[in-house]
Amino acid sequence: MTLGELKAQVFELIERERVDPDGVDAALATLPGGRVYFEGIKNGLRLAAMLPTEEPPLGLDRRILAAASE
To answer: Please, where are the H alpha helices in 1-59?
Structure first.
């Protein structure tokens, strides 16, 4: 696996890790820096999941489109 392949497949590998952690470890072990990249993405997803979700203000999409067309 190359770093480019890891970047393209990182979300699939995160899902696969739940059922085949040894296989994911083996794939990452062959790539220098692969484990660091993989864990960084997982940590980012963990942090994003902790963010509160809110509905955008009513009409925000119209204001954005109006501003973009100006």
So the answer is: 3-19, 21-29, 34-50
In which residue are the tokens 């890790």 written?
Answer: 17
The CA distance from 18 to 58, in Å, is 39
Q: Which two tokens stand for residue 48?
A: 């994003």
**CB contact at 8 A, 56 and 64:** no
Q: How far is the C-alpha of 31 from the C-alpha of 51, rounded, in Å?
A: 31
Confidence at 70, pLDDT banded by 50, 70, 90 = confident
Amino acid of residue 5: E
Whole-prediction pTM: 0.72
Q: CB of 6 within 8 A of CB of 13?
A: yes
pLDDT at 10: 94
